[in-house]
Amino acid sequence: MTYLLYGTNDYLINQEIEKLKEKNNITDNDVTRYDYTETLIKDIIDDATLVPLFSNKKMIIVDNSTIFESTSKKEDTVVLEKYLSSTNDFTILIFIDKVDKLDERKKIYKLLKDNNSVIECNTLNINNLVKEKFESYKIDSSTITKFINRVGTNPYNLINEIEKLKIFKINEKVITDEDIKFASKNIEDNIFDLINYIVNKNSEKVIDIYHDLLSRGSEPIAILVLIANQFRIILQSKLLYYKGYTEKDIASTLSIHPYRVKLAIQNSRNYSNELLIEYIDKLATLDYEIKSGEKDADTGLELFLLGI
What we know:
- The structure is a single chain.
- By secondary structure, this protein is α/β, with parallel strands linked by helices.
- It has helices at residues 10-23, 41-49, 74-84, 107-114, 126-134, 141-151, 155-168, 187-199, 203-215, 220-242, 247-254, 258-268, 273-291, 297-306; strands spanning 2-6, 31-35, 58-63, 91-97, 118-120.
């Protein structure tokens, strides 16, 4: 069987692979990975036609499978089309293309689509994921929202923190608002707090959070990038809001949690578009100066934070 997994959500892609492994009783030892950009399609297909030696089935995963895009080589598509016309039962061949949309007019796409073998991996419902992972534990919807706001929307971080809370409350099996305070805040949430203190002109708190991030091993350059991204989200949210977009529409367009949009719009009222652009430009310049050795990262970023 041949599958095409496409989309920008790594978690969903990995989940679909795990489902296929479980469904076909395939272990990690039966899996081979290729990079389409570094391997001839002929070599991949040759491997797919070989009978596995030590098991009934094997899995071949092909990363960066641009063969399904409009710019693909015709000779490659011909080889794959020929294989798709006579696949075998002992090979699970999975192509992965991390783009949000593909050319549905291509023949090879249609061949897989007709067999229900195309799986989109773009949108993950974070609330449903959290609810599902807490399983038999009792947790209400408002607590789930607060948990996501604290931990962030990275699925792997969420699952890690869920497992910690489940062990912590293994006897009661009830998760409360008080319990989620034991979940680790991710660096992006701390950056968001930092931005809020910047908005409120609280320089003491800004520097306290910055030093706390450094003490926990965060690199100044990584903090700089996240601050720039938050200012960018504030600017983008503001521009889209005044174009008539709803908070929900903005969240979908920017692929961020609605709560982030709500706060970004609130914070945007304290800044003109010109000032937000100025901050983003200054951070870009500082990034260049740090990477070129002109400025010390720690000192440069702290001076920027004190000056805004």
